Amino acid sequence: MTEGTTINAHLTPLPDKVGVDGLEDKWRAVWDEDGTYQFRNTRDRKAVYSIDTPPPTVSGSLHVGHVFSYTHTDVIARFKRMQGYDVFYPMGWDDNGLPTERRVQNYYGVRVDTSMPYDPDFEPPFEGTDGKKIDAKDQVPVSRQNFIELCEKLTAQDEKLFEALWRRLGLSVDWSQTYHTIGEHPRRVAQKAFLRNLARGEAYQQDAPGLWDVTFQTAVAQAELESREYPGFYHKVAFRFEDGTPIYIETTRPELLAACTSLIAHPDDERYKPYFGQEVYSPLFRVKVPILAHPAAEMDKGAGIAMCCTFGDVTDVQWWRELKLPTRSIIQRNGRIVMDIPEWIESEAGRAVFAETAGKTTFSARKIIVDKLRESGDLDGEPTPTKRMTNFYEKGDKPLEIVTSRQWYLKNGGTDKTLNAELIARGKELEFHPDFMRVRYENWVNGLNGDWLISRQRFFGVPFPLWYPLDEAGEPDYANPIVPSEDLLPIDPTIDVPAGYTAEQRDVPGGFTAENDIMDTWATSSLTPQIVTHWAEPDEESQALFNATFPMDLRPQGQDIIRTWLFSTVDRAHLENGCLPWAHAALSGWILDPDHKKMSKSKGNVVVPNEPIEKFGADAVRYWSANARLGLDATYDEGQMKIGRRLAIKLLNATKFALAIGREDENHHVGESAVASWNPADVTEPLDRAAMAKLALVVTQATEALNAYEHSKALEVIESFFWQFCDDYIELVKNRAYGTADEQGKAPSEAAVKSARTALGLGLDAFARLLAPYLPYASEEVWSWMHEGEGSVHRAAWPTAEPYAQAATGVSPEVLAWAGKAVEQLRKIKSEAKVSMKTPILSVALSAAREGVDAIKASMGDIAQAGRVVGRFDLVEKHAEEAAAADSAAVAADADAAGSAAETLVAIESSELGEPPAKKPKA
Fold first, then answer.
1. What pTM, to 2 d.p., does this model score?
2. CA distances, 480 to each of 205, 511, 922 (Å)
């Protein structure tokens, strides 16, 4: 062994009692004071590990699902830090967007009125409404700027609570690197990226039909859709040829009859082939429309022929675009029928019918139209109930409408086959963990049918940094926006004035007007790698940070936002930086309640994370989280948290026990400091070497698993051997470690004692480091007992297998497994006799398979002392046919296989017990 592998331990005074309570406050304060998790500003990219941390939405409270996924990330961050990387691990807050607006509206009882002036002395009517929803009619109108200030105020309060929870959980975040999605820096990044997209032709505006939420009064992107079942009715309605002959369609939306542009059937449908190219009249409105063919028509749905209205659903948009149909929109942004009678309705009867529906909701208009169809005889039979899949905004309660409006789009491969192929290729470059999540990315990109709609008609978000010149009539020239220079960013065009104009020219003919829309929240969040690494900032410090951290190493996130956050971030980096934003993506599953239903706030089945942390401790909750594999759902399980708490306590107790051994030899007391030297070369006894052999194997397997982002597999390997180390190894060697003489009065040699103590020290030193990513508080506590003044375990080196493997030269880990099963059989004798474990065994004979005999013989002395065998101890080989079966069962090299074989192949042949120890008289 080389001198460098020796571990010199500076042992602190050991506490009289140990426990996990109080460790969180104790070590959090130390970590903050020492800057344990600070990024050290390493300039070498190869020495940095950078993490694109998900910024949680600051719109209320976290739930235990957040704890679950963020723990997975933290395990990797801690592991990489111990591997020697300078870990760049910021925390962000996603504080702009609709969720924040909704929370502010309800919390303060306000709503935006853009016509109102800013009031610097405004006081909201409420300061918290216990989560109750305030009706719009009861909300006090405020200016846009007053509303934004309230958003900023409330998110700042929420962020403090969120940070306190993350700190208690033990996230090893560098809090000096915290970022927001609405602050000055992220606004500058988002606006700069947009202007560069605009200059390259990747961002564009267009008047086009788009999905619209009538409740939130905003456009909705494809990635934000949810398809839900919605009750409705099929109406069989007659369109008629010139001679009055009917052709029937079936529709769930008869209120859109006035918007009909055509009837469409599949080109192969024999029923309708004769009619393609002919025209019919719409019922009630008598508007002439053609019968056309398109392959998207479904022959087996309804009558097999459908009316195309502008616009009832996304298929209507497809037909309108591809068949170059006229635009006949009748739905307004508020979800009501337009007030003016459309010019394409020429018949007096039709105009009179439309006048009755003008300004009505779609529900009321539908009732009017159905009644009119009954009167005209164009409704065949009565409406029949059905349930249809309808698009909703993921945060909305009403079906989306499709309205035509001017919106901003960013290219994402939905209309560009070349870009689509490039983004598919980026997905193949990216390492997905688990790999089966890759197909979700590819399916999404392949299924895109339009570019990314990035504008929103909301208030709290990043403004588009644009103005438009107004002509002499006061009409904006949208084709020639006024663009600021990058050095002026960030700007708010509703407040700032473009170069060459004065404030007095705002919104007057010949002057300018602001772009009032804001960017979709994902348009900012998709730039988190650029935001946290200080992309395109002019100062040297920012440039050095960017070069050292970008492209980043890891994006951890939920599986449900692959189509939004993951894909949009890949799209932005591809367009701007010509590369992936990170090398790895780690996808967490969902948390299920005890009934195996997904936890969500909307279902009311979430658990507030403070509760289990308070009840079981942060280490215990982290243990439960880390037991779940990436990509798979996990059940909320307090039983596992109890196991995690027990594991943390066992680490404390086992370490204290082992460190206390031997202090009295040098006239040290448990409450005093001591020095120990654990040199692997001093491990000489077969049982101790076997423990080191297994430890080498565990270190190798755990390291490989964590390098592959399989944190749960690594924990399973580490934890399994930890319990074996405590339950078998410590029990087997504790008498020898103390130097206790056996029943015949023979004391172990000095070398044998030192071998046991060294193996105990090396083992528990390794376990403190191996468990540190999972149980940061308990691991830090035991590390402080062993390494006083040497810094945090979380800055210590991750263990390597070589020292333990060298200490184990010539000995298999199977020796420990067989010895453990032998002691188990000795205890079984006493258990079945219902006597104390201190009862001596006068004689015993055990049988074992051939390879087990040699393993057990190698540690007979420790086995005898652990089992209190005071007399004859015989070990016999199993019969040949049994041994042959054992050969095939125990050929595997790892100790788990050996342990399984030992469990069935060590048996009691005979035994004789002595007298149980006398009971001590009661005081």
1. 0.82
2. 11, 14, 97
